[in-house]
């Protein structure tokens, strides 16, 4: 349980608002609100100031802080890594160690938009050897031929959270090495809700009691808004085995198998409609309203991610993190798992050294701990590092527990066709539309978008 000192109300509420809406070094709007396939902590990770940092003897040229241009690779550098500002800072020490060990010149450069700048640089052969980014970029990169498979040994794979390894795969082939995960969980105000609810029904009943007593403004909060939020709605849709896509023979997502109108997804959406009837979900509550209400101590529970912990603490809220509760009939809401990973470019200047770095240095507790400490305090993907961090970070331990068994966010390009239509459909259902007919309409729209 997190215990904090009560802070000034106005500034604390503002901090939580920023955390929920994209403020801070490692937060952003969720994919459903951006319409992109980037993971929930991704966009702000790519808005750090643009500069280049040399990890060997010579300093790389620094770009203007306002520049959106891609870093310029030093022609003499034998291994170049692109990452956002926070991750680049954490990687300098390890890149230098690697260069010293293998007798090569290494360079870590800051990219303001790793995904876009890497894709552009790849087309002209001027990109880095390694990049750091979200796992759900993978389908696009494989489609464009810009990344190379990574031959990660079985014994090394076994050292990671299993779902994080699954997130690095496309058509059964591993294309990177994971270092961090993130997911949604239940955050509760422990002054209002001292006990972990055993079921969603228990949560809703207790929340309703608090509202009736005048101690809360809503039983529970989750971002919805008038256009919906498919990222935050997914746990309900997935609770009975439904979701968005079916899987292929390799266990990957199959865009030809859209399952949004399946009986399983419909059953989950019916639970979402029930939550709306109980006033636990509301189209008038978006991320901003939810954050303000929680900061004011007027919301006992909310569904959110690790980007909200700083704001809650600064608001002086005593809180705890736990898994999203199951329904009484066995439905188990599981959130998407987002994974951050290291990719190897398909046209790396020195592919052998690039593969050596991701295979030997990334699966180390030291590197994964450094990334945790310097890049947003996300759960390490390496089990050894995760165990070490969980022993001292109760928030992270709670989010990690909530993410057990969570499916990785689909990393296929067709996911871009899903966010907006599915988000709107969930908002309409929460607003009172018929569940089955609305999901069938969303299914048709998404299938048409995918083509």
UniProtKB/TrEMBL annotation:
GO CC list: ATP-binding cassette (ABC) transporter complex, substrate-binding subunit-containing
Organism: Ornithinimicrobium tianjinense
Region (Disordered): 21-72
Protein family: Belongs to the bacterial solute-binding protein 1 family.
Official protein name in the record: Sugar ABC transporter substrate-binding protein
Highest classification ranks of the organism: Bacteria, Bacillati, Actinomycetota, Actinomycetes, Micrococcales
Acidic residues bias locations: 47-67
Residue intervals passing through the bilayer: none
Annotated GO biological process: maltodextrin transmembrane transport; maltose transport
Polar residues bias (residue ranges): 26-37
Signal sequence bounds: 1-22
